[in-house]
Specification:
eight-stranded mixed β-sheet, four-stranded antiparallel β-sheet, about 15% helix
């Protein structure tokens, strides 16, 4: 087995998004091959990606081809501030900001079926709420079609433009659907209910007669239902033994795609819509035997004769494929994994479970180094996802594979409060952050120690965002548990974070307060669960990594935490990236952050002698 440098791991290309050109011969997507995301196209027969943008400062993401010509929509923010604008990119390379203005955030919301117009949301009128506009595809003249004065989250638009679905989050476990009648200018509440039940509008049927929505009413997991827009009848449409997470139709309405969150993996179903005695029926589409991996990001061409999608595996990053329904053939268009990396040197993840302190079963994703054994015990890291209601899932993760390749076992814990395991499990962390979810992480340490190939004295904890908060909490509230902590833009002071929530999160503010605490009425709880106020308890080495432009967890969160811990002569390493926000999208920064993380872990978790040996072996040579 070879050890690989972080430069070799980062030579792997990250790609995302897909849109077919009008002639269906090319696919538009985003790639960070040059070190920062830009927009590219590829022929459906394969070939060399053609760059459409060449940004060297701000990540640029592809959105869509225009339906009838080679114009393209792209989006970007500035330095990670998340204030995305929508841009027109003409065939000659000239860009035009379609959503100009300071401090606003805009998002593409879809095309009119005939391609003559497209929809855009923007919070320019009121920074708290997003209104809906229709743009003429030729003149770019826009029309305001919904003024969002009640603070809804904008949902799908029916193809006949008669209806706009609106989602409202009451709490993280309770939500509603409303329906705006464009003709009558009326809003109707579709889901009155009692108790905590989730309802979420997904899409309208091709004939604009039904609204497809998700709900967990009467069950642990979300299923797909339909609401008849004329009779009001609600019908169960599709279910699984896990959460259905989304559904959508192809542009011509011929196909419908369903995504299922199945025990930490994404499972895709595709059905063909059939007319049966005046009613719409569906039959499963039998797809060919694709290479091993999970299908993600399915997109159809205008005529639905071709399907673009991604395949992703634990040892294989996203690769773009195109399937031709007419010939039954498919073609892989990209090879994302660095040519210098042999995938057999990487590891397959395992889905594992353990019982926590109160008997609750905690599902996790486990990565075991090849060299780990009873006679060669390895150090381990508890890896906590963002959220709070996020989820660690199977699939390629360069950071995790890099650490595992260098001898660290990694347990991606889905502590209580994580998505994907039913509404009871999801709600089990409400108002308990810094306590029960953290105790799950403590029990994870016990579980790892029981596996026989882990050195129980060398277990650390790390994570980003909420995972960073959990890292700080572990070191402050259970200072004896972990040997080190790596906090990546994590919350240290809930009072400040909740007070500095971006204005455009207004529709979620009540739900966030309900789950975490109200900064006015729950000061005692928030102080008790904020690591900053307990920094004097931290006794183990800490690394903190922060983006200077982060709008969610502002830089002051990390600044003050680092200062407070250093006062007590605890080793703290602090890295700030001036051109990043609440994620790191530039390869040069990803390389620096991950190299420094490994050096920190080698020094404080493995020990100095092992770190010295690592310096001589981190050259890509065979071990």
């Amino acid at each position: 087995m070879k050890r690989y440098t972080i430069e070799q791991f980062m030579a792997t290309t990250s790609i995302l998004g897909a849109s077919f050109s009008a002639d269906e011969r090319r696919v538009l997507f985003s790639s960070n091959a040059p070190g920062i995301f830009n927009a590219y196209t590829l022929p459906v027969e394969g070939g060399t990606p053609e760059p459409l943008t060449c940004s060297t400062s701000d990540s640029t993401f592809s959105v869509s081809f225009f339906p009838h010509d080679d114009r393209v929509l792209i989006t970007r923010d500035q330095g990670g501030d998340e204030n995305y604008h929508l841009f027109l990119l003409a065939p000659d390379g000239v860009e035009k900001d379609l959503t100009p203005g300071e401090g606003l955030k805009a998002q593409f919301m879809g095309w009119r079926p005939d391609g003559s117009a497209f929809f855009v949301s923007s919070n320019e009128r009121d920074p708290r709420f997003f209104d809906l506009y229709r743009y003429d595809a030729q003149t770019y003249t826009r029309t305001l079609i919904y003024t969002n004065e009640q603070g809804f989250d904008l949902g799908p638009i029916s193809r006949d433009e008669r209806w706009i679905a609106l989602n409202r989050v009451n709490t993280t476990s309770d939500s509603d659907i409303y329906l705006f009648d464009v003709a009558r200018q009326e809003v109707k509440h579709l889901t009155p209910h009692e108790g905590s039940i989730s309802f979420h509008a997904e899409t309208f049927g091709p004939a604009s007669r039904k609204l497809f929505f998700l709900t967990n009413e009467g069950s642990e997991f979300k299923r797909l239902c339909t609401y008849d827009l004329f009779s009001g009848a609600v019908t169960d449409h599709e279910s699984a033994d896990w959460d259905i997470i989304n559904t959508y139709f192809s542009k011509d309405g011929r196909f419908r795609v369903t995504g299922i969150n199945q025990d930490g993996s994404i499972v895709i179903r595709v059905v063909e819509v059939m007319e049966v005695v005046g009613e719409e029926g569906e039959k499963p589409v039998k797809l060919p035997a694709f290479p091993e991996g999970e299908i993600r990001g399915v997109v159809f061409s205008q005529s639905s004769s071709r399907m673009a999608f991604y395949l992703n595996g634990d040892r294989s990053p996203d690769n773009l494929f195109v399937h031709d329904f007419n010939t039954g053939q498919f073609k892989q268009l990209t090879q994302s994994l660095s040519k210098e990396i042999d995938s057999s040197d990487l590891v397959e993840a395992q889905v594992v479970r353990f019982r926590s302190f109160d008997g609750m079963v905690i599902p996790s994703i486990y990565y075991r180094p090849h060299e780990a054994s009873a006679t060669n015990k390895v150090p381990a890291i508890i890896y906590v996802h963002g959220g709070p209601g996020g989820q660690t899932m199977r699939g390629y993760n360069a950071q995790i594979q890099y650490l595992v390749n260098h001898g660290y076992a990694v347990l991606g814990i889905n502590n209580r409060g994580s998505s994907g395991y039913g509404k009871t499990f999801f709600a089990a962390a409400n108002r308990k952050h810094g306590r029960e979810p953290l105790w799950d992480c403590i029990e994870a340490k016990t579980y790892l120690a029981s596996r026989g190939h882990i050195d129980h004295e060398r277990i650390g904890i790390m994570g980003a965002s909420y995972g960073g908060y959990m890292t700080l909490s572990a070191l402050a509230f259970r200072p004896e548990a972990f040997k080190v902590g790596v906090d990546i833009f994590g919350v240290s002071n809930w009072l400040r974070t909740l007070e500095s929530i971006p204005l455009y999160w207004e529709s979620m503010r009540k739900a966030i307060y309900d789950e975490i605490g109200d900064p006015v009425n729950d000061i005692d709880i928030l102080v008790a669960t904020s690591p900053l106020f307990h920094a004097k308890e931290i006794r183990k080495p800490l690394m903190v990594i922060q983006g200077a432009n982060d709008p969610r967890v502002i830089k002051a969160e990390s600044d003050e935490m680092v200062e407070a811990v250093r006062k007590h002569n605890i080793p703290v390493e602090y890295i700030v990236f001036p051109d990043e926000g609440h994620s790191f999208t530039k390869k040069k920064n990803q390389i620096k952050a991950n190299r420094r993380i490994l050096e920190f872990l080698d020094k404080y978790l493995k020990g100095r002698r092992r770190a010295e040996r690592r310096k001589t072996s981190d050259t890509g040579r065979a071990q």
